Structures are given as C-alpha cells and as structure tokens.
Amino acid sequence: MHFTPAKTPVFSVTLPELQLNFKEMGLPAYRAKQVMEWLYPKRAKSFGAMTNLPAALREQMEAAFGFEALELVRTVGSDDSTRKFLFKLEDGSLIESVLIPASPALYGEGSDRRTLCISSQVGCAYGCKFCASGLNGFSRNLHAGEIVGQFLRVEELSGERINNVVFMGMGEPLANFDNVMRAISILNAPWGVGLGARHMTLSTSGLAPQIRKLAEQPLQIRLAVSLHGATDAVRNQIMPVNRKYPLAELLEACDEYCSRKNQRITLEFILIDGINDSLEQAAALGQIACRLDAKVNCIPYNPVEGLDWKRPSLRRQDVFMDALQRTGADATIRREKGSDIAAACGQLRLQVSRDATGSEAE
Fold first, then answer.
1. Residue 96 designated active-site
2. Residue 154: phi, psi to the nearest 5?
3. Which CATH architecture group holds 9-66?
4. CA nearest neighbour of 348 among 38, 76, 113
5. Distance between the two ends of the chain, CA-based, in angstroms?
6. Contact 94, 349 (CB under 8 A)
7. Phi and psi dihedrals of 73, rounded to 5?
8. How does DSSP classify residue 273?
9. What is the DSSP track for 6-56?
C-alpha cells in the first residue's frame, strides 16, 4: 500500500530542495534558511509563527506544504523510565516510538544519553516469528517527514534532548531505504536536527543487497544486524528473510560493509528459550562475531501476547553468555528495558487496535 499525503510534508524537504523551490519563485536563498531555522532550532508549530517571513510567502507555504504533527494517542511509562509513544498518522495508521534512558551499567551513573527507537514502516512484511510488528502484516512505508516527526514530537512531549537514535522500531528500515536515508540526512544536517551520524544506528533483519547499498553511503551511521540465529537451520525457523538471504550471503555483505566503512557492526541476538539458546548456537555465534570483529548484544526475549515464545531462565542466559564469551567474542547481555509496558516493537499498537475493535485491526 502506498500513501500520498495531501501536501508535500515539510519535514521531508531538504534545505537544497527548498532553496531551489524558492529560486524558481524568484525568492532569495536565505529565505529557505530562515524556514529551516523555524522548523528545527526554533521548532515552530505553524507557518504563521515564522514571523520574519513575508505574509505572502507564509500563505504560499501553507498551501504547498503539510505542517503535519504526529497525533499522540497514548503514552505509557515504565518502572525503568522507558517511555513508549503511540502516534496516529495522517491516514489513521498507528506507529510507535520508544524513549530509552541510559543504562548506568553501560554508561555510568548520571549519563545524559537518551536513545529514541524509531519506526520506519507501518507494520512489517518480513514476518519474524517472535516479533509483534508483523502480526497484522505490512501496511506501508513511512515517508521521511513521519520518521523525522517522531524525533521532534518525542523531544517536545518528553521535554528531553535526544542524543541517540536507533532504527529498531516497527518495520525493516532497509526495505524503506530512500525514505530512511532522507530522514537520516535531515536528522544529521547542520540546518536540520544536527545529530551526529555515529549517534544513529540502523538495524536490519538481513537484507544483504541493501547492506551493500548502505556501505556506499557517505554518512558514517552505524549498522546492527538482527541475527537471532547463528545457523541457517535456526534462522530459517524464526526469520523467513533467511530463506532469501541465507547466512553465507548475509555475512559476505557484512564483510563488505565492514571493509568499506572501517567500522564495527553489532549483532543483535534475542535469546529465546529452547530455540537459539543452546551451547551450539553460542559457539556458532561466537565464530561469526570473531569473523566480523563484531560486537554481540544479547537480549532475553520480551514476551508478546499471542506468541508462544519464552525467555530462557537467568541460569540458562548465564550459561549461554559464558559459552559465547569463551569463544573470544565481544559480547554483552542487555536485560531489556520496558518489559512492564510491552516495549517490544508493535505491542502497544496491537493492544490499542484490539481495544478499539475487539480484534486485531489491519
């Protein structure tokens, strides 16, 4: 499904594009810079607020551009200060964003690190068996303004400065490559949000061709691969994408990415009881991590209503981590944040849809 906004979303537009647009209108380039100052440093809520622009220009922009703001549907807070935001889009679709505070164990007491987990699609087409995002299937890609809008709205609603972004919310970012890259360029640009490229991480379930395409991009954004299985047999069981891009092809693409970018990737590995938490999986995962010189982030499974998967016991988690670290892999385990608010991708969206309809909404 493709969604075409009634007007061009203003938060999807880059400064060079707006300068060209204004030039064609016979306006000086500095007017475009003024608009960007209102949109990002000043966080204006309307074109009418841009008081140093001529009234006629403000009216023209109002007619041509959509000054969309994501509508907040629900906010839920966690005991660990994680907060989840459910937003309604212009077409009524629901998406989620999660604001995650720094972990003292990783960053020390008093760290001001605040990470926003951003969605890139409405739903997901890749059908990972343990994930809530795809339970209602795939609806559409988000346009760049809806992606950037999550950052702006969460900062506004929380009153906190976000200094780290991970594209690990609903959807497969590399399946929405152009819109995600446009959003990243706006978040990174000095005329935009001004967030450093190395403070943004893009996560993929394993789209090998797009990983190679990402390696060609100039920005030094970080890459995380949602591996979740260290052999084809296990990945095939829980991640359908592996049938199209099996481990050998995925790892070759990761090799290319690492060599071209000269940076380490992260391997995300959700530990699921009886599925991928064996000593054999730990050994195979360690071998992959050492081959790629990758960091491994192990995460005990966050239970999802309607799915039968379970997290391993604490003892089982510790045994797995001990075996993994003995391979020489650089690995840590993250006792996930937000489990008390169903912070896993797509869970709040499903919950609200069921509340509203009495069943799972499309």
1. yes
2. -70, -40
3. Orthogonal Bundle (1.10)
4. 76
5. 12
6. yes
7. -100, -45
8. T
9. SSEEGGG--HHHHHHHHHHTT--HHHHHHHHHHHTTS--SSGGG-TTS-HH
Distance CA 344, CA 339 (A): 7
Which is catalytic among the residues 90, 96, 146, 172?
A: 96
Residue 296's φ and ψ, nearest 5 degrees, are: -115, 130
- Percentage of residues in the chain having pLDDT higher than 70: 88
Please state the rounded mean pLDDT for residues 135-144: 88
Residue 128: exposure state from Cβ atoms within 10 A (0-12, 13-18, ≥19): buried
345 tagged catalytic = yes
Hey, how many other C-beta atoms are within 10 angstroms of the C-beta on 134?
Answer: 21
Domains 9-66 and 71-357 share a fold: no
What is the rounded CA–CA span in Å between residue 89 and residue 122? 10
d(CA 215, CA 209): 10
Return the CA Rg of the chain.
21
At position 193, the amino acid (one-letter code) is V
pLDDT of residue 113: 83
Which residues, 6 or more positions from 185, have their beta carbon under 8 angstroms from its beta carbon?
A: 14, 192, 219
The pTM (predicted TM-score) of the whole model is 0.89
Residue 79: closest CA among 336, 300, 340? 340
pLDDT digits (tens, 9 = 90+) for 40-63: 999 999 999 999 999 999 999 999
Tokens of 233: 């047999």
Structure tokens given for 69:
């703001």
Listed by start position, the domains of the chain span 9-66, 71-357
The CATH label, of 3.40.50.150, 1.10.10.650, 3.40.50.300, 3.20.20.70, for the domain at 71-357 is: 3.20.20.70
Task: Give Cβ neighbours of residue 58 (< 8 Å, ≥ 6 apart).
Answer: 47, 48, 50
